[in-house]
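Example 9 (inverse folding). The structure is encoded as follows.
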């Protein structure tokens, strides 16, 4: 038996907190009866409806995916471009990405059908490190990258301090390879941060998400997360 709000969150309908509001507002039925009491428990055979639409109590699943470039971090696209779920044809659960990577950015992306888990990882206050490797135009050095360690203002809001490492520089091509570690998840954040210090991004890859890496995977491949990895992510998200 599971708490009703957790079942709704696992189905990807809403976060657990939002699910509590939905229940309190009388929008949920269990076996045809409106339920407004938080903490109500339901089993696998119970029929749960939100706004009259049945939800299916799937077992939660968690995948680590190596997103290729040229793929949308979504489950559908109105322009008929490839989306991440196109790479999971044999997965029957209704999975979706946790957060996003830009269309032209490759690297680690987590997919799940557990809404509660997804909300915890994606919440801005949770500080899970994400490591990106960028090929940039320009010669990276301490002078131009140091401001990122103090935070810079993007669109009127200061970024959290970042960590950097200069992997290589090529004076002939006027390019550098830079590793940047952040824990926020604003749209185009890494690109905008590097652009702001005069190092426009030419190519970008997310290589680490918490302790997770792409080891053993090629672009377009995925694997299931194990129980220890899931536990560690939730611990880091506290």
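The amino acid assigned to each position is listed next.
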């Amino acid at each position: 038996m599971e708490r009703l709000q957790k079942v709704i969150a696992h189905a990807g309908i809403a976060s657990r907190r939002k699910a509590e509001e939905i229940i309190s507002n009388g929008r949920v039925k269990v076996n045809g009866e409106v339920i407004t009491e938080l903490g109500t428990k339901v089993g696998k055979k119970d029929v749960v409806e939100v706004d009259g639409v049945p939800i299916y109590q799937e077992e939660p699943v968690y995948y680590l995916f190596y997103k290729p470039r040229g793929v949308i971090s979504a489950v559908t696209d109105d322009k008929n471009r490839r989306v991440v779920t196109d790479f999971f044809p044999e997965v029957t659960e209704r999975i979706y990405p946790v957060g996003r990577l830009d269309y032209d950015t490759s690297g680690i992306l987590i997919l799940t059908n557990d809404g509660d888990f997804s909300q915890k990882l994606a919440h801005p206050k949770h500080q899970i490190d994400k490591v990106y490797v960028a090929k940039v135009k320009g010669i990276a050095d301490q002078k131009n990258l140091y401001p990122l360690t103090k935070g810079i203002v993007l669109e009127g809001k200061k970024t959290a301090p970042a960590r950097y490492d200069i992997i290589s520089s090529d004076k002939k091509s006027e390019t550098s390879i830079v590793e940047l570690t952040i824990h926020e998840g604003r749209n185009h954040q890494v690109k905008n941060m590097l652009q702001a210090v005069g190092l426009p991004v030419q190519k970008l890859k997310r290589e680490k998400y918490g302790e997770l890496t792409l080891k053993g995977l090629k672009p377009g491949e995925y694997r299931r997360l194990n129980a220890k990895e899931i536990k560690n992510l939730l611990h880091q998200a506290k």
